[in-house]
Design goal:
By secondary structure, the chain is an alpha+beta fold. Helix content is 21%, strand content 27%. The protein contains two helices and six strands, in the order E-E-E-E-H-E-E-H. Strands 1-2-3 form a three-stranded antiparallel sheet, with no helix packed on it. It has a three-stranded mixed sheet with strand order 4-5-6. Strand 1 and strand 2 form a beta hairpin. The two termini are 21 Å apart.
Length: 95
C-alpha cells in the first residue's frame, strides 16, 4: 500500500491504484487548467465538485469528457469549472 493525497491507496489486480478514502475534489471557481493539472497529478478521470460555502457539499462532477468538450468549444484555460461541469442529481457526501 502507499499513502498519497491524505488517503490510503492500494493496487487492484491490474496494478492500478484504488482510492480507499475521500475523492479528489475541485471547487466551482477552479479553472479548467486547475482541474486538468489535478486529474493528471492524481491519475484520475474525474473530480467531485464541492461547494465550500455549504461545508464541502458535493454539487457536481467534472470528468475528462467535460474537459474535452470545453477544449473543443475553445474555452479559455482560465474558465471556471462551474461553466462546464456535469450536475448529477444523486450525489452523496463521502463517508
Amino acid at each position: 500500500m502507499e499513502t498519497e493525497c491524505g488517503g490510503l491507496r492500494q493496487r487492484n489486480e491490474e496494478g492500478r491504484r484504488v482510492d480507499q478514502e475521500a475523492p479528489i475534489t475541485a471547487y466551482p471557481s477552479d479553472t479548467l487548467i486547475d482541474v486538468i493539472e489535478k486529474m493528471a497529478r492524481y491519475e484520475v478521470g474525474g473530480l467531485v465538485v464541492v461547494n465550500p460555502s455549504e461545508g464541502g457539499k458535493p454539487v457536481a462532477v467534472i470528468s475528462e469528457r467535460d474537459v474535452v468538450k470545453a477544449l473543443a468549444m475553445k474555452m479559455p484555460l482560465s474558465s471556471p469549472v462551474e461553466t462546464f461541469m456535469s450536475t448529477p442529481t444523486n450525489l452523496h457526501p463521502p463517508r
